[in-house]
Request: fold
Amino acid sequence: MNQEHLRSILQAVAEGSRSVDSALTDLRNLPYEDLEFANLDHHRALRTGVGEVVFGQGKTPEQVAAIVDRFVEQQGRALVTRASPEMVELVRQTHPDARHYEAARLLTVGEFPAPDPQGPFVAVVSAGTSDIPVAEEAALTIELHGARVERLYDVGVAGLHRLLDRRQILWQAAAVVAVAGMEGALATVIGGLVSVPVIAVPTSVGYGASLNGIAALLAMLNSCAPGVSVVNIDNGFGAGVCAYMIVRNQKCE
Amino acid sequence: MNQEHLRSILQAVAEGSRSVDSALTDLRNLPYEDLEFANLDHHRALRTGVGEVVFGQGKTPEQVAAIVDRFVEQQGRALVTRASPEMVELVRQTHPDARHYEAARLLTVGEFPAPDPQGPFVAVVSAGTSDIPVAEEAALTIELHGARVERLYDVGVAGLHRLLDRRQILWQAAAVVAVAGMEGALATVIGGLVSVPVIAVPTSVGYGASLNGIAALLAMLNSCAPGVSVVNIDNGFGAGVCAYMIVRNQKCE
Amino acid sequence: MNQEHLRSILQAVAEGSRSVDSALTDLRNLPYEDLEFANLDHHRALRTGVGEVVFGQGKTPEQVAAIVDRFVEQQGRALVTRASPEMVELVRQTHPDARHYEAARLLTVGEFPAPDPQGPFVAVVSAGTSDIPVAEEAALTIELHGARVERLYDVGVAGLHRLLDRRQILWQAAAVVAVAGMEGALATVIGGLVSVPVIAVPTSVGYGASLNGIAALLAMLNSCAPGVSVVNIDNGFGAGVCAYMIVRNQKCE
Amino acid sequence: MNQEHLRSILQAVAEGSRSVDSALTDLRNLPYEDLEFANLDHHRALRTGVGEVVFGQGKTPEQVAAIVDRFVEQQGRALVTRASPEMVELVRQTHPDARHYEAARLLTVGEFPAPDPQGPFVAVVSAGTSDIPVAEEAALTIELHGARVERLYDVGVAGLHRLLDRRQILWQAAAVVAVAGMEGALATVIGGLVSVPVIAVPTSVGYGASLNGIAALLAMLNSCAPGVSVVNIDNGFGAGVCAYMIVRNQKCE
Amino acid sequence: MNQEHLRSILQAVAEGSRSVDSALTDLRNLPYEDLEFANLDHHRALRTGVGEVVFGQGKTPEQVAAIVDRFVEQQGRALVTRASPEMVELVRQTHPDARHYEAARLLTVGEFPAPDPQGPFVAVVSAGTSDIPVAEEAALTIELHGARVERLYDVGVAGLHRLLDRRQILWQAAAVVAVAGMEGALATVIGGLVSVPVIAVPTSVGYGASLNGIAALLAMLNSCAPGVSVVNIDNGFGAGVCAYMIVRNQKCE
Amino acid sequence: MNQEHLRSILQAVAEGSRSVDSALTDLRNLPYEDLEFANLDHHRALRTGVGEVVFGQGKTPEQVAAIVDRFVEQQGRALVTRASPEMVELVRQTHPDARHYEAARLLTVGEFPAPDPQGPFVAVVSAGTSDIPVAEEAALTIELHGARVERLYDVGVAGLHRLLDRRQILWQAAAVVAVAGMEGALATVIGGLVSVPVIAVPTSVGYGASLNGIAALLAMLNSCAPGVSVVNIDNGFGAGVCAYMIVRNQKCE
Amino acid sequence: MNQEHLRSILQAVAEGSRSVDSALTDLRNLPYEDLEFANLDHHRALRTGVGEVVFGQGKTPEQVAAIVDRFVEQQGRALVTRASPEMVELVRQTHPDARHYEAARLLTVGEFPAPDPQGPFVAVVSAGTSDIPVAEEAALTIELHGARVERLYDVGVAGLHRLLDRRQILWQAAAVVAVAGMEGALATVIGGLVSVPVIAVPTSVGYGASLNGIAALLAMLNSCAPGVSVVNIDNGFGAGVCAYMIVRNQKCE
Amino acid sequence: MNQEHLRSILQAVAEGSRSVDSALTDLRNLPYEDLEFANLDHHRALRTGVGEVVFGQGKTPEQVAAIVDRFVEQQGRALVTRASPEMVELVRQTHPDARHYEAARLLTVGEFPAPDPQGPFVAVVSAGTSDIPVAEEAALTIELHGARVERLYDVGVAGLHRLLDRRQILWQAAAVVAVAGMEGALATVIGGLVSVPVIAVPTSVGYGASLNGIAALLAMLNSCAPGVSVVNIDNGFGAGVCAYMIVRNQKCE
Reply:
């Protein structure tokens, strides 16, 4: 409820065209509506191009399908992360055009914006072959929001030349998503090379003392390079949203 | 801002004794005020008898003294937990009547309700001598809120008869606060003896594999006795508030 | 053995109708029986309306079925938590009327009290869709004990308006069970909104640094809101019992 | 090689009935043999009645069967712990009389001593139904070594009377093995009741913050009762050996 | 060394105005210089307005003073984080104009850019009084880089209205730094309110199960709100750099 | 209350020399007294030669002194573990003959039994110089209970010959206490050498990944040698009591 | 690109036989190539005899087969660690001569050097039967690089004589790889016996408090024997490479 | 006792120049002496040039001084690690020429070999200023054993060019010690650059989620570069010994 609406109610009361009781009834429910949450949610969808997202993991295919239906009805589209093949199959029964990004475990229904080919881009960098699913989750999340991505995969720091070889791309990126498991050194090395924000994503790739990604997580949190912040283990989607939020602010460049 | 106030504004507008613009200015700030938070805070103070509390630890004596001054002005009194001797000394310069409960590390300024001698009581039980400061923090928190406490100290389960000896008091309590470090078995044994809620407080008493209270905390969380819930290590104040909230609801018995 | 029985023995000895040796034999076994444990257990069942409960997890269907049989014989009914479909199937062979609350993983045999529609109620609040099984375990536990529940599901704090929208229910509750995984912030936000006890239940919902619920558990234990106590990860039953014990004490209101 | 043997070799050399070279060959291998390890191993078997044991877990049925064959040949019998059904089946192909203690997951081939009905006994106490496999592993380990066991199962401290009810047995035991998961309070309560050594065995029974037995392990290590020592989680065999070693030393009583 | 420089060397060789040996000497050092690291470092200083920073903690005052001298010589200024009073005193002997931001534990020597009053701003939000040093470290880091900050302190989520009261500022911010200890719920609540990147800073404020900030760290990593990334415990400086890098990219708006 | 007492009461009632009411009053308090706890405590003191012990750590010198006074009055003597110099000084003001075992941090008042020179002995073995305080705590605890000790110090397994050199003593011991920090391998090596119970005491000696003794604790719990059980980190007293309880049972050998 | 090449380019420019532009094109790509990474990689293959290796775990059989194809093409051979039977089967479809070392989970395609029978050797020592797969991974890694190995399996320190029995081999080794799970004491005992580098490999063999190998890892890191360094849990390959790198440097002895 | 000695004894017995009893006395002590431990220790000193070392931390100055005296008497010299100023002072009272390497916290008494200027060298590399004490401990340990060291300090990977700048030295080293705290990425980057063994030393430099060096330790254990092994946190001495043992084997190159 904006000020204009509020003023019009008061005006009607002042003019006698509306009773005090009737106005009171309207105003009683003001509090939280005027918190502008609804506006916020509306704005968020407008600005991000996607809106709310379904986290598939831990849900049944039936639950996911039902939420997808509701989102498609409300938002015109739906994005599911950590989508299992069973979820994809079930959703496709209702939405035959649902698109499955298998490596990234993403599922989309409806139209999503195409990445802006002129806009700033995010470099999504990953260390090893096994990190690619998480990297793809990040990359596609960014692209589905309408921003551009450059992928630099398999450039782990144990073979430093592979990374340095592509440093020009790193230096042109508006933000970097660094995806690595094991010792997670990639984030620090990149953080030392660029001067834009680096979103580090530890992955659960590794064994033994990798503690399912805790080792990489701790390493990234302790990065001695400034400008590095970290998301949860394997959280490619979260990193993608962070990076998109950063890059979206630069469209006018 | 309650409905009566809202109605009086609308009434004034309807009667023309107030302009739309003037009313609008008042109403613009409605949203959160009408969330009834203020009411809530007011109610809370009325019902609990105390209101907001100062957590002393990690604050400088100067910070504590300043907050105490503000609270005394607003609420007529102040309660400081984890009060150091330095804090006590500084506060007493302004409030010579400040009271220091040394064992419990509590500091009060102003009048607090006396425990109701007819009301239901909380049994505060502790295992060892070193657990007493935390137990006292809980016990006094309850008493300063106006409820009655029975103290059962030094009744650790390694000497079970000490606890069983006082079982009649346990069976009459409306709630129990169980304070123990080391292996924290006290909470489970009490939980098996009573049928009222048990608030378990692990303490950092112990060494080595007690991990500063983590061992007792884990044990209490895994209690095989129903009706046991747990607060943070050494959090006598938190347990006291929980127990008070429970016992307050029984005043009519 | 109550005092009357004791007196009658002594009386018989005084009257010579019973020998000292015969009386001695009876009294030798007095000690623990007179500890009133039996009484306690009897009272507990009377007051809670349920009695002892079977924790299904980690038991074989055969073990569960055997315990259910014994409980039904002794208590007239049985409640199994963490009941697997296999347990349900096996129990139903003997007790065709056994009831399976699938979402909550509960199994009941026999009659349970209906929730008192006039009594105080517990608000069971959960953050996400995946938290519902635990929330339902808590809610049904309360209802099967005869108390009333209001469910507020899917009101995670990342969309604060969903929770605030239903604050009136929160403010009328006699106790709150707050169920959340991931970062567990729900307990603190609710703890700041209400002035009744909040039983927080961390769930294992999440991945990576959620450490199977440890992150939520720690967050809840560190809640900066007073009145919050915590039970084990996914322990909906335990939270339900705690809340029921609290709300039962208010029936006379 | 004892001194008499050594002297006889030297004597033969002195007498010229044996050449220096021949004696040298014998003596070259002296060092470790004279460390009396062989003697030790021989003594151990004699005194313990069992000898070396096969830990089945993590081995293939083929590996286990081969080791069993070797042990039967060397020691006349074999004891396998953590024996899977597959191991039992395979061993029985060669040793049809192999005996499978299913609850305890033990497998024996050959004759073992019967428990001495007059000797001192170990009380094996367990908290819940799910702890029984570990308790049985301990109890049978003791019995297979020839010592007597009294079993006190399902006497968790949440129902203290169940344990106190059988306190006479506890007070007659020469040692106690206390088996419990979850919060592990059983060890401390028993430690406070008896004045003989208590071997505590944490089990992995529990969920969430039980951390697969770590909670019970920590609790037991922090026991405030003296005389309690602890073995690894679920290590019924180890506890059985410890208790047997203690009780064996009392046979002359 | 850019292409133009390289071309001019080759040109000189082609023209005979430079000998092959002389060119070779220049080119031998090409490899890493041409990696453009030097350029990068130069650019970084130009763009960020600050350059390299001294992390005071763990260094002696003498070490810090020496590094400050070198930085002032090279960069014209120096910024020390985690500066102890001893460091400040020593540095001031050489640089009497050194400025000490006591709450933030920062020390500066030389001129730093003033925050741009027209530029986008970062909202630095903190939960409790004890979190202020870390929040100030973040806020001043941003301001010393030349960007604008709005401070929202003492708005912990246990008193939600304090935060909601200032939501307009949150909604105008280009990025948010959320600083909180204990349960760290602040980051999630803010993440649900805004649609710009949130840099979460867990603090070591708390006790017991806060595990020196690990509880808040885990909570923030598991935030169910999108757009939240996390830095190390108490790392106000790192969060400030991240936020500055984000906000710097929006200057043209 | 023993049977004789019970019989005498009944006899008096049968004889009419005592009224039923008077007898009833006596018998009402029977339950726990007849639990024989008092007897147990009495027996414990008789058999162990010491009785209850004061754990000094975490207590004030005043608290310790007061408890010592009470113990001396009740038991004729007192034993304080983890006694600080301040405690010693204060206790000596009242008990000038108090004896301070400095290395072991023990304090005794009154007469303690001398070790039986003919009895079985406990071998107390320690790895390094820094482990000696814990080893001495164990050794003196055993001796003060009246059993004999052989000390084998500084025989860490990195110099295996130092341990093997003294293997004869190990092979004659009735029990072994193995004290080691760092990697705690001593317990396993000894466990493989002897066939009597080994009580392993991890110490907090070490740094970094020793995690204040957790590394040694875990190693000892995972010992591949049978017959090893473990007490808390640095718990020399607990190990001493365990070992004494074992060795006491062998006096008749 | 070495100096000679650089000089020849400059010479050609000086002589006019090459244009500035053509030279520039060559030199533009100098930076990282001249970092001598390519040389390094070339050298590494030459010296180690193997080159890059495929870590199979976490990859699909298809991914592994594709990488094997590329490696065979580039390097003439391929080595896959943690190869699953599915990977072996798929690779064999293209490379029928692929060799599967089943116990070690290694897969090779193409010719590898035979171990030098005259060269120094590495002693690979393992504690238990279940440690053999990791030990074999280390041993074969060394042999496939062309160095000699002596295997000492099943020599855990709980039966010290088994290890001491083979001490001559240990004393002749140029390096030792010590593989052990559970309490990991093997590394320390060996470290005390030899004066060459010991590479310790903790394994995940064990249960309960072994924490999947963390206990052994910590023990090995805290080894009180000098000359011991540690690799990740179950990392037989890594230990093999370390040992090979050490032993390769001794060929001229 | 070698074979020659053994033969000479037997010869004397055969020749009658020695009695059987006299020979027996000699041979009775054979067992462990012939284990060649003494020889080993002798060899170790000869080969390493240093012999046993005193770990100062956790010892009193008096203990250290006493051990130093004994070592000087036995070995002609002594090396103390983690020497406190108090230890230095006390040792100097007896050994005025004792040398204190303050940064490395080492103390030496007597003559040590000078590093061989022609021998292979170890590159000791450290990331930050605060890592220098540990790096110096490693470097001096190597030099005091007689091997050569090249120091590359302050070359953390956040400024990659600083490390690459000195890559020639890295490529000539016979082994590398990589010392780093925080995220410990240095070890992996170096491991990718060289083909000699890298001994990684995590340091406790850092704060918060560095967990006193655990983060760096885990990162190093998970290094994706082959040839990296790890020692305990801050264990510069251990790394130095490892590196020296490696480099000593190359002297003939």
User: Anything to note?
Assistant: Confidence is low (pLDDT under 50) at residues 29-49 of chain D. The interface with chain H takes residues 3, 6-7, 10-11, 13-14, 16, 19-20, 23-24, 27-28, 30-32, 34-35 of chain D (CB under 8 Å). The radius of gyration of chain D is 22 Å. Residues 121 and 148 of chain D are 5 Å apart (CA to CA).
